Every structure is written in structure tokens, then in C-alpha cells.
Amino acid sequence: MVQNQNATGQNLSGSDRLGQDAVERWFIRQGLPHAIHDYAASTDVLTRAAPFLSLVFLLEATASFGDQFSGWSQALVFVLAVAVLLAGVALLNTYRKRPKFALPNTIGLAETALFVFGPPFLPLLFLGDGSGFLLLALFNIVLLGVTYMVVSFGMIPMFRSGARHIVREVGGLGRLMLKSLPLLLLFATFLFLNAEMWQVAHGFTPVFYTISVGFVAAIAFVFLALRIPAETASLAGFDTWEDVCHRAFTCGAPVETHKRKALHDPPKPDPLAWVDRLNIGVLLFMRQAVQVFLVAMVIGAFYILFGLFTVRKETILQWTELTEATFADRSIYEMVLFGTEVALTWELLAVSGFIAAFSALQFSVSLITDDTYREEFFNDAANDVRNVLAVRALYLNDIYAHESQSDERNADERNSDTEGDGSK
């Protein structure tokens, strides 16, 4: 059977390597790529981003465009710019002993420098534009940093997982609102039917209103983030291998169920590094943020509908400084319903937005302080993460078992060679 070597250096059979690759791709799809053993920027992160970065690299040949050229001369300069970039790629790949135009399987300092400074060299070469060089180089550095963060933490798979989670949460929205709505409505109704609240909303400019609502929402998400480190620390430990195997074999992970050597309790997988805990924390935060966002949206929609029937035009004129002449400027939509004039106004949207933001804040605090809320809304996300960590424990056990077998084979071969030399 063909032998392969993985990133850690141990020899793996073709089927074992495929199985390990499948598990690692599954980690990425779950939004936890840092569960991969020896996860590194040069071989795991930037190499996955290489197609995107290569496209950006070639598109930046347009930096050669300038007022000095037009028509066919500009087209010729563009072709020369692409040729310069491709020549740089070919030279670097030749030095790295790769095919001339192959995507890199390892991205080091030289590849990074070529991406950052290669395209910015074009305006300097063809246009003599030093400021263009600096601006494009700075843009490439920022883009590279953002790309690293997105790929390193599996943000795109995480967002896809979050979208699927939103669908599931919308399906269970009745359960979510049944638990959270009564207390939130009791808290918010007194604010909503309050003249001072409507006066405050009427006096806000759009910019200051956005800042105010955003500030309240930010506090809500800060409360969510404060609990994450403690939760993350409690998720990684397992008491028995039976629990690990049950989770790994029933969560849909591509883990082989073949019989392994005796597994001694308790499991002792590698401790989570700070970046692993950060990856888990981001995933848990996003899952809870989805719940908070849905609660806020439902509360806001409820009060917009409620306000259409309870706070009509006459009441708004009494509670705010609007007059009959200025009311039309603040009205978004008016209609007659059951013989009564109903108006959707900016004030109604502003007050409902305030209520939604404060409800999100209260719900976030309840998620942290109320055990009932935590059990109802947090445990599903925590259970999903524990499943991934169970797969990680089994995956690391298999890697170390292969390493041990490889070391034993190498030792046996050395002993055989030594005995052969002695017999001579």
C-alpha cells in the first residue's frame, strides 16, 4: 500500500491519510479548524486562501493603469504588468522546486512578500508613482490579515453553520419566544407606552439614534462574550472514552469505527491552546448572538404592529412636538383600517428599535445569570462543540497511535541492522 507522510512526519497508509483528511475537512465545516493537529499558517491557513489571493494578485495588475497611457499603449502596459507578476511567480516557484505556475503548498516569507510588494511595484515601475506603491502595499497587508483571520478561524463555514442555525432557530422560534417573551414584554410595555420615550425618539437625529441603539446592542453582546471563556474551559474534558466514542460516532463525523487498542480512562487529549479556545469562543458567541438577534427582531416587529393599533396619530401629536402640518413629513405610510387612520411613522420605528435593543440586552443578561435560560438556549450549542472536541480526542489518539507504531517499526529496523552488522 502506498505510504504517505502527514504534517507531523509520521508515515500513514493511503486509507489512513484519507480518513484523517476527511476528519480535518469536517472540522473546517464545523467552524473549528483549530481542532486540526499542528494547524499552521504556512501549510493550512494561507494555502487554503491561495486561489483567492492569486486572483487578487493578478487583478492588481490594473495598478499599471494611468493617465500616461491610453488605447493600445495602455493594453500593452497591462500585458507587460501581468508578465512581470507571472515572472515573479515562476522564479519563486522554480526556487521552491515547484511547477512554475502551481499554487504553493507552503506559503512562507518569500510568497508573502511577493503578494504584498509585487503588485505595488507596478505603479512604481510604469508610472513612477511612489504613493501608489505605498497605498497598494498597505491595502495588501490589511487584506492578507483579514484573509488570514477569516480562513484561520473558518469564518465562512462558521457563517454557513450560523445560517443553518438561524433556520433551525426560526423553526423553534415558538419555543424561544415562549420562554423569553413574557418577561421581556412585561419589561418593555411600560417603556413603549410612555410619552417621554416618544419625545426622546422624536428628538434623535439618525446618526445619534444609530449610535445609541448600537451602544445598547454592543453591551448585550459584551455580556455574551464575558461568559464564553468559562464555558469553553468546561467543554474540553471527558470522563470516559465511552462518552468520547459515543459522541464521535453519532454526530455525523467521518470517524472510522474500527476497533482501537485499549483506551485507558480518563481521556487525556492535548490541552486546548489559547487560539483553540478563541476559535471555540467565537463559534459559541455567534450561536448565542443568533438567538439574541432573533429575539430582538421579534420584539421589534411585535411593537411596530402593536404601536400601529395603540399609538395612533392623535396620540403621537400629543406626545411629541409634531403638528398636523409636520406629521406628513414623519409619516412613512398611512392607511385607513376599520374606519380608523393608521400611520407608520419614524417615531414608531425608533421606539420599537429602542425596545428591541433593550430586550436584547435583558435576554443576554438572562442567558448568563439564569440557569433555566442557560439550559434552554445554550446547551445545544455547547453540546455541538463537545461533539467536535470528542472527535478531536479520537482523532489525536489515532495520530499518536500511528506515530507510536512508526517509532516501533523504525526501532525494529535499526535493531535488525545492528544485529546484521554484528553477525558480519
List strands and helices in order, with pairings.
Blueprint: E1 3-5, E2 11-13, H1 14-29, H2 41-45, H3 50-59, H4 71-95, H5 109-117, H6 121-127, H7 130-152, H8 155-171, H9 173-192, H10 195-203, H11 206-235, H12 241-250, H13 274-310, H14 313-319, H15 324-330, E3 331-337, E4 340-345, H16 346-369, H17 371-377, H18 379-423
Antiparallel strand pairs: 1-2, 3-4
Helix pairs in contact: 8-13, 9-13, 9-16, 10-16, 11-13, 11-16, 12-18, 13-16, 16-17
Rg from alpha-carbon coordinates: 30 Å
Low-confidence regions: 1-15
The biggest beta sheet is recorded as: 2 strands, antiparallel
Number of contiguous helices:
18
Q: Order of strands across the widest beta sheet?
A: 1-2
Average pLDDT number: 79
What distance lies between the first and last C-alpha atoms, to the nearest angstrom?
32 Å
Q: From N to C, what is the helix and strand string?
A: EEHHHHHHHHHHHHHHHEEHHH
- What share of residues is helical? over 70%
Beta strand count: 4
Strand pairing plus helix content: what structural class? mainly alpha
Whole-number total of structural domains: 2
Q: Estimate what percentage of residues fall within beta strands.
A: under 5%
Report the principal-axis shape.
flat
Please tell me about this protein's structure:
With 424 residues, this protein is mainly α. It has two domains: 33-152, no CATH class; 157-236 and 271-377, no CATH class. Helix content is 73%, strand content 4%. It has 18 helices and four strands. The protein has helices at residues 14-29, 41-45, 50-59, 71-95, 109-117, 121-127, 130-152, 155-171, 173-192, 195-203, 206-235, 241-250, 274-310, 313-319, 324-330, 346-369, 371-377, 379-423; strands spanning 3-5, 11-13, 331-337, 340-345. The strands form two sheets. A two-stranded antiparallel sheet has the order 1-2. Strands 3-4 form a two-stranded antiparallel ribbon. β1 (3-5) and β2 (11-13) form a beta hairpin. The longest helix has 45 residues, at 379-423. The radius of gyration is 30 Å and the shape is flat. The two termini are 32 Å apart. Mean pLDDT is 79; it is low at 1-15.
